Input
Amino acid sequence: MLAAANAKLKTKLKSPANASVQTVLEELEAAEAPVDILRLLSVSLPPRECVWWACIAGRDILEEGEKSACLTASEAWVFEPECRKP
Output
């Protein structure tokens, strides 16, 4: 997954390259490597969940009550991915 996304972890792992995501997450947690945990999650989540995660992060940086057309459209897609505007 990491190679396909052209992403690399900075933490040296003992797990083999074909280790499960859960195994690598556990190793990264033990190594106290939060940035690498986020990096791995960003490439291992399915597309819809990845967009939702980005929406949550986007909401965190907006001021309370502030609107974003991009964020609104992204959230709409997460809730109804088959819905398309004409």
Observations:
- The mean pLDDT is 90.
- The radius of gyration is 16 Å.
- The chain has four helices and no strands.
